[in-house]
Amino acid sequence: MKRGNSLIGVGVALALVMTTSFAWAGRLVIKGSTTVLPIAQKAVEAYMKENPEVKISLSGGGSSNGIKALLDGSTDIASASRFIKDKEVKMAGEKGVYPVPFAVAYDSIIPVVNPGNPMTEITTAQLKDIYTGKVTNFNQFGGPDLKIVVNSRDTSSGTYETWEGKVMAKERVTPRAQVMASNGAVVQAVSNNKYAIGYIGIGYVNSSVKPLKVNGIEGSEKTTLDGSYPISRPLFMFTNGWPKGDTLDFINFVLSPKKGQNFVAESGYVRLY
Predict the structure, then answer these.
(1) Are 62 and 158 in contact (CB under 8 A)?
(2) Which residue segments constitute the domains of the chain, with CATH numbers given?
(3) Contact present, 224 and 217 (Cβ < 8 Å)
(4) What percent of the chain has pLDDT over 90?
(5) Which of 1, 52, 253, 256 measures 20 to 30 Å from 126, CA to CA?
């Protein structure tokens, strides 16, 4: 699906939120995705400067943990780099929780290698072969003679689940893979090992790792928005029911084209608009 269609729905949601915005002073708790974390950190800092009477607690831990916290009532907002699963919706209904999603940004998952690796691109089929363990050396598809050290994310990660669906076609990652708890940990592992490969949200790409094109397409703002990059996704914040008070006001802040969406771009991700 092209991004333009989904933006219509986001715009309608934004309009609805904007028409009912008001603030109650208090405390907010936000838990969830490490992918969304850089956006949330910048938004929280700016929001509390504008609203010093509101105290916000922010933590990562993964998309699944964020949604779990929403279901057990220990967070006001769950950030997630994937949509809520059917089994989570069922659990929510059993607990009287009604998750409402707000798309807050777009992201592309970028495969990365060490800067010392001469490779510049890879295909989704080759990525699958690497991550299932079928291919163990870069030279098996024309790369350097380096035995591959595979870095993946833990199963509570929304990034892992997107990778599993879009690259692995639901096949299992090789048990030889090193499992990382965050995007930052993957960056560190790959930057320190010339044999390594990993995958990270576009906002975490920096000069310490080399991003690879996928199927000949570079992950960028343009290719994320037009849907041509093959491993892209929306990023979400979930609330229990339609948000009210400070929760609503903060969601408005993040969705605002002149406020929160600027922090999306500053964090290296792709704005909704």
Answers:
(1) yes
(2) 3-106+233-266 (3.40.190.10), 108-225 (3.40.190.10)
(3) no
(4) 88
(5) 1
